[in-house]
Hints:
two-stranded antiparallel ribbon, 8 strands, elongated
Amino acid sequence: MQETVHPDLLQVIIKSLALMGGVGAAFGIVLAYAAKKFAVETDPLVELVRAALPGANCGACGFAGCQGYAEAVVKDPTLSPGLCTPGKADVAALVAKIIGKVAPEVVPMVATVFCRGDECKASRRFVYEGVKDCRAAILVAGGDKTCQYGCLGYGSCFKACPFGAISMSPDNLPVIDHEKCTACGVCVSACPKSIIALTPTAKKVHIRCSSHDKGPVVKKACELGCVACGLCVKGCPEGAISMDNFLARIDYEKCTHCETCVMLCPQRTIEDQIDPSKETGPRTKLARKEDAGGGSEPADAPAAKAAKPA
Length: 310
């Protein structure tokens, strides 16, 4: 038996559809008028600069994403076209060419972890059972690490890196992939212990410790911490190393990568990142004699005798 639609119901449906169609058309007209009335003209230079940027929106330039930087660098004649660190020199040169500015000299940088105190080398004061994140762990008595300056190892930097350039070692220490790192600085901001810094890519020798504690305190907390013995300061032929409140510091402008400090450091705190597997720590007496031309005393013997742990 064929069912029929009541005429009154059919009339209601038709009126409803007509009403919805009319409302939709009215809204369309209003939106079209508003779009035309309030349209903002786009500067073609901004679009070109935006297309030249890598699109990471990491904020390393100091602006809210690539679009924000593109607009600012076009409108502000004093703003440098080289603020996009992920883009490095190539992007800086392209942006400068687009907007008619002089391309600045861009020194390639990379993130460096200034701590070697992993699970095997550094001790902990207590067992932390909270959220596995450094920014959460530090809220509990400054973190569970015995060294108050050391890496907590819960991967805040690893989670924050927008380029996948950081991994965690089996012993919970961040490892930087230099090929992927763009020096955006996100990991620097994410680390609550401030043990990550941007360093010149060309400089591979680093004092990988951040502790300002005295030697005996450092030794109790970490096997690889700087004890401020001063051997690297006295042995550096370029005067590139100084002591800053019980912590050795390298002046990268003076460092020539001679590796003298790498060989002298008794704690193996100083690392050559070109070849981390290379011999570290004080060299053998025979090797020093050979370097000195076969003399009876090591070339660095006076410095070694004069320096005592702090």
